Amino acid sequence: MGAIRHGTSETRDGSIQLLHFGLRLPHPVVRVWAAVATPEGLPTWLAAAEVLEPRIGGAVRLRRLTTEDAPVAVGSVTAWDMERVVEYTLDPFHGRIRFHLEAGGESVTVLRFTHEFRGTDEHRLDRLADWHQHFELLADALDGRPVTDWSTWTPERRQELREEYVSRP
Fold first, then answer.
1. Cα 35 from Cα 38, distance rounded (Å)
2. How buried is residue 57: exposed, middle or buried, by Cβ count under 10 Å (0-12/13-18/19+)?
3. N or C: which end of the chain has fewer CB within 10 A?
4. Is 93's pLDDT higher than 70?
5. Are 44 and 146 in contact (CB under 8 A)?
6. 11 falls in which pLDDT band (50, 70, 90)?
7. What is the CA radius of gyration of the chain?
8. pLDDT score recorded for residue 1
């Protein structure tokens, strides 16, 4: 898998932040879906899905595994189209995250990701770096190298990515 392309962002109404990532993953849709929409797949690259009811209106509770005191995101599933679209609308701090999957050829998935939240420009930069790093972990997990020990996670890569996003036009 090649490097993850930098995400883009826009600000609306002064504080609504929209982040966008587009990934071309050399794996079939069913495999990418399992990584972004199942309690078994999410902890290999993002967060523990302590609750995930796979239906519109279903409850979701995601707990980051990077630190013991990491915040928990609580909300509901607001879009669910099996192997196509999953969207989690979480508490106001975390906002709305949406994964849209399409077949991009034989054993290739195009993943379009959007994160909408209310926050400052500093929050926007932090989250661009966070998601970029998590998508690197997603690519590794899909390639057979899932995160199995989050205690080895360090913030250095995130800080490096944040600095890249600061310097981008």
1. 6
2. exposed
3. C
4. yes
5. yes
6. very high
7. 15
8. 43
118-166 pLDDT, tens digit per residue, is: 999 999 999 999 999 999 999 999 999 999 999 888 899 999 999 999 9
Q: What is the mean pLDDT of residues 65-80?
A: 92
Tell which residue, 79, 80, 50, 51, has the closest CA to residue 65. Answer: 50
Q: Report the amino acid identity of residue 147.
A: V
- Residue 105 confidence (pLDDT) above 90: no
Q: What would the CATH number be for the domain defined by 8-167?
A: 3.30.530.20
Nearest CA to 46 among 156, 115, 143, 141? 141
**pLDDT value at residue 2:** 56
Tokens of 138: 């997603």
| d(C-alpha 89, C-alpha 35), whole Å | 18
Domain boundaries, the chain: 8-167
Residue 88 and residue 76: Cα distance in Å, rounded? 6
What amino acid is encoded at 66 in this protein?
T
Give the three-state DSSP class for 153.
coil
* CA–CA dist 36, 91 (Å, integer): 19
